[in-house]
Amino acid sequence: MSDNNAIDIDFLKTWIGKERIRQDDLSPFKAQALAAALDRQSSLQAGDVLPPAWQWLYFVDTPLASETGVDGHPKTGGFLPPAPLPRRMWAAGKFEISRPLIIGKSAEQTSTIKSVDLKSGKSGTLLFVTVEHNTRQDGELCLSEQQNIVYRDMPTAAAPLPAGEAAALDADWQKEITPDPVLLFRYSALTYNGHRIHYDRDYAVNTEFYPALVVHGPLLATLLAELVSQNIPQAQMETFQFRAQRPSFDIDKFTVCGKRDGNSLSLWTRSHDGFIGMTAQVQLRAEK
């Protein structure tokens, strides 16, 4: 297990302020492919608005094979600080939509390391890295996002899941999801996410000691955002904030749930045995 004293946090903090600028043409193919993977009936074309939480299809890392870690993630030490803790997870995030992103239109994203923090918890040493992404089209800010990444030690044996919090049963809308391996593989491919816990069952079970393939955190957030689009199709999201509490796996169905209070929405996933997996809060743009 890693020791806080052995981690040079002052060195890692020198990454704060590091910036990266990338371009992407927001190809219609990726949006069309995700729509098919999610069994969406409507076809998305160039010029259409990109649905909320679909921005993760774009501006993806494409490391060389030699710059990819054993777990399938890009090796750290480039844009991200060289975290000495090997297990990396996207724990939470939030984004604000100033104006919709348009499919098939060139966009620019500026990413900045905002913070690097070391903490100790019940599960051991944790390193938190917060990255801010600002995405523009025609020079105008469209999307401002914060991504919270957590690094921790690799487990040495199977351990029970975190204690579960009972999920509310008073949803205004809900939809059961079957997270089969095909869906997980397609989402990994579309986001160029090489993390093997999402498609390599042997690695997920025998190296990272999960009980099965793990459903991507961003995919869960996307499914929650889709629930909103399906039930309030004319609504425009202003902010979306999510937090992972307990992993979901491909061996069990789960349910995406939502409840509305005016322009504020509470969203959550409910596992097959009744526990919260992810929560999200959405603020809709007030109608003019």
Automatic annotation (TrEMBL):
Q: Which InterPro entries match?
A: HotDog_dom_sf, Mitochondrial_HTD2
SUPFAM superfamilies, per database record = Thioesterase/thiol ester dehydrase-isomerase
* PANTHER family the UniProt entry points to: HYDROXYACYL-THIOESTER DEHYDRATASE TYPE 2, MITOCHONDRIAL
Protein name listed in UniProt:
Acyl-CoA dehydrogenase
- Source species, please? Zhongshania marina
Taxonomically, what lineage is the organism? Bacteria, Pseudomonadati, Pseudomonadota, Gammaproteobacteria, Cellvibrionales
